[in-house]
Specification:
Blueprint (H helix, E strand, L loop, with lengths): L5 H15 L9 H10 L6 H5 L5 E5 L5 H13 L18 E7 L12 H24 L2 H10 L1 H14 L8 E18 L12 E18 L3 H14 L4 E7 L6 H14 L6 E8 L16 E4 L6 H4 L2 H23 L5 H4 L4 H12 L3 H18 L7 H24 L6 H19 L7 E4 L8 H5 L3 E9 L5 E7 L1 H6 L19 H4 L3 H4 L6 E3 L6 E3 H4 L15 E3 L13 H11 L9 H8 L3 H12 L5 E4 L5 E4 L2
Parallel strand pairs: 1-6, 1-7, 2-5, 5-6
Antiparallel strand pairs: 3-4, 8-10, 9-10, 11-12, 11-13, 14-15
Helix pairs in contact: 1-11, 1-14, 2-4, 5-7, 5-9, 7-8, 11-13, 13-14, 13-15, 14-15, 15-22, 22-23, 23-24
Length: 642
């Protein structure tokens, strides 16, 4: 068997790191974008959807590849306008598409003011103008750019708008016009008198005159709206012979809920502008709100990344799992081949390749970042414990366990800091207790999957967000009757509790997999409004008071059981209005002792964000508030205050 050289070992580390950090790319570094094109795998046709001439939002759990796909689409547009890339073939053929990339995670300082809408407008327009000018510089050489600016007054208008924005005047009220007024006033009086000895007559001429001239100068603010701005962009676009403009907006979910709603009002004014400007927005599943003005399916169209979005395409959950395994194999094989300069998978793995890919697939469930963590940790373990530095099943199991514990720490730290209500831990413990109970009844049968009534889907969002559960499919028919949402318990957690993992449909449709009796105990935390609610003790269906108010004896419409009144409880109050990524960062740090302290890069890898976000959020906010400790003997290592 071939043993890898030190250089090959480094190459394989880089290959696995590229899966984990595929979105850590600097836009100015064209070679990084070229490398991304080489090792990018578009197994599910995401690029085709993203590059359509329509407004889209790409949605998935953290780590599913939203930023990677946006960057890849950005580069495809860049190839149409950059002279450095003119030899590159693009899917747009002869069209020129100007790409503009805006990372909203860099806007957090702007949201500290009470007037968030003004600040969002300012930052958003400035980002567009700055990127537009930068791309024009990329398209034209210096001599031609000077001529282009002279012939294109609209570009000067944009530069003026940017200057005004820098001075702090909002988009709605940003053009200053100097107005001068001049007033002239003349006054003249004449008196004629004549004096004669014969005739008493007085004659004379007295003339008085006055001339008054006044001049006033004052400034008047004239409003410029978004349409005025778009008109200027459209003029520049035509002058530069650009066919379309694609604006990629990443990390929308890093905004707070209030900021999202305000930003969506601004975004609505851009959507459907009819000037060939299309928006591509990256959002976290269950962590975005476009408000009531943007209608999904009319104003903006989804590009889904989550596993459950592909189940119907491939004919069921188990068939989709097998298809996902093909993706995992292609992804890993391609990275090893490109980074390893000809190395093959058998040079890196020493166990059954199919079994290794099967385990990785069941743990990751379509999340590339999880795949990266598994392989990175497995390879470190192989170099520590294996003489040939190759990855076997024991190393893969270690990598899988490392990935799961990373997510577990974030969840537990978030509970500890009251960023997530504590009842989610109670709910999770109740689900695991039920699964272990079912396993104990039938040790030879799988107990890894659960079925939940769709009306309780929101209950499990936080558990899915933290990768304890994976949402697999909707409308799964149970042998008991009725249709349910299907979830799987994390693969490594199943291994920890010796729970057999289901591989066939018949293994998870039995009545024992229906967990409504477990999660319905938490109904009071999710019941909204002050009106009473009622629950059927038999089928678990919940009725609002308005549905049964006319009945003296309130009964279930399905099975005629007498309904029970739900005693409403208030959800425990959480501390801080944090975005999802901020909860994960603080949760991760809060789970670390001094001996386990991590730097910004390590936390970013665990959470799935940039190290700049960790550094800024940790140092400027969390440390100042006394929520974390920083060990400055080393280069800013973060750990819990406890």
């Amino acid at each position: 068997m071939k043993t890898m050289t030190p250089k090959e070992l480094k190459n394989i580390r880089d290959a696995f790191d590229s899966i984990l950090r595929a979105d850590y790319i600097t836009l100015d570094q064209i070679n990084e974008l070229e490398n991304l094109e080489d090792y990018y795998v578009d197994f599910f046709g995401i690029m085709q959807s993203l590059l359509q001439k329509q407004d889209n939002f790409i949605a998935g759990r953290r780590g599913t590849g939203k930023t990677t796909n946006l960057l890849r689409a950005y580069y495809e547009c860049l190839k149409t306008i950059s002279p450095k890339l003119k030899a590159k073939k693009s899917v747009f053929d002869q069209e020129k598409v100007l790409p503009i990339y805006i990372d909203l995670s860099t806007c957090n300082d702007l949201f500290d003011s009470e007037d968030n809408l003004q600040l969002i407008e300012v930052h958003f327009i400035r980002q567009i103008i700055e990127s537009l000018k930068k791309q024009l510089e990329l398209m034209f050489d210096d001599n031609f750019l000077v001529v282009f600016k002279k012939e294109n007054p609209a570009l000067e208008d944009l530069e003026f708008i940017e200057k005004v924005l820098v001075e702090g005047i909002s988009l709605r009220n940003q053009t200053t016009t100097t107005i001068s007024t001049k007033m002239t006033q003349n006054e003249q009086t004449e008196i004629n008198q004549k004096l004669s000895l014969i005739n008493a007559e007085l004659g004379g001429k007295i003339s008085t005159g006055a001339s008054i001239e006044t001049a006033n100068t004052y400034n008047q603010l004239r409003g410029i709206n978004v349409q005025d701005f778009l008109n200027k962009v459209n003029i520049i676009k035509r002058k530069a012979k650009i066919d379309n403009i694609y604006i990629f907006i990443d990390e929308y979910s890093d905004l707070s809920t209030n900021s999202q709603l305000k930003f969506s009002n601004l975004l609505k004014t851009f959507l459907g502008s009819r000037i060939g400007m299309f928006f591509k927005v990256g959002v976290i599943t269950d962590r975005y709100d476009f408000g009531d003005k943007i209608i999904i399916g009319r104003d903006i169209f989804p590009v889904p990344l989550n596993f459950n979005d592909y189940v119907d395409r491939y004919g069921g959950a188990m068939a989709a799992i097998k298809k996902m395994q093909e993706f995992v194999e292609i992804l890993i094989t391609k990275r090893i081949s490109i980074f390893g300069n000809g190395l093959k998978t058998q040079d890196v793995f020493k166990a059954s390749i199919e079994q290794i890919f099967s385990r990785i697939t069941k743990e990751a469930i379509g999340v590339p970042r999880t795949i990266g963590i598994i392989l990175q940790q497995a390879f470190i373990q192989a170099q520590t414990n294996s003489s040939d530095n190759k990855i076997g099943l024991s190393e893969i199991n270690y990598g899988i366990s490392s990935a799961r514990k990373t997510y577990q720490r974030q969840f537990e730290g978030s509970i500890k800091r009251k960023l997530i209500p504590g009842f989610y831990m109670d709910m999770w413990n109740a689900i695991i207790t039920k699964a272990v109970s079912e396993k104990n009844k039938h040790p030879d049968r799988p107990a890894s999957h659960i079925l939940i009534d769709p009306i309780r889907k929101d209950y499990l969002n936080i558990l899915c967000e933290n990768f304890h559960l994976h949402f697999l499919s909707e409308n799964i028919a149970s042998k008991y009757g009725g249709t349910y949402n299907l979830y799987s318990i994390d693969f490594d957690i199943c291994n920890e509790f010796n729970i057999k993992y289901a591989d066939e449909k018949d293994e998870y449709t039995a009545v024992r997999f229906v967990y409504d009796n477990v999660v319905k105990e938490f109904d009071p935390y999710f019941s909204r409004g002050k009106s009473k609610s009622y629950r059927c003790p038999n089928c678990g269906k919940i009725y609002e008071e308005s549905e049964v108010v006319k009945s003296k004896v309130k009964r279930c419409f399905e099975d005629d059981e007498i309904l029970e009144e739900i005693i409403h409880m208030e959800a425990p109050i959480t501390e801080g209005n944090y975005a999802e990524v901020e909860i994960k960062i603080l949760g991760q740090i809060s789970s670390l002792s001094l001996d386990e302290a991590m730097n910004a890069r390590e936390i970013a890898d665990a959470v799935g964000c940039t190290y700049q976000k960790v550094s800024l959020w940790g140092s400027r906010v969390l440390a100042k508030k006394g929520l974390i400790n920083i060990d400055q003997r080393k280069k800013n290592y973060y750990y819990s205050i406890d």
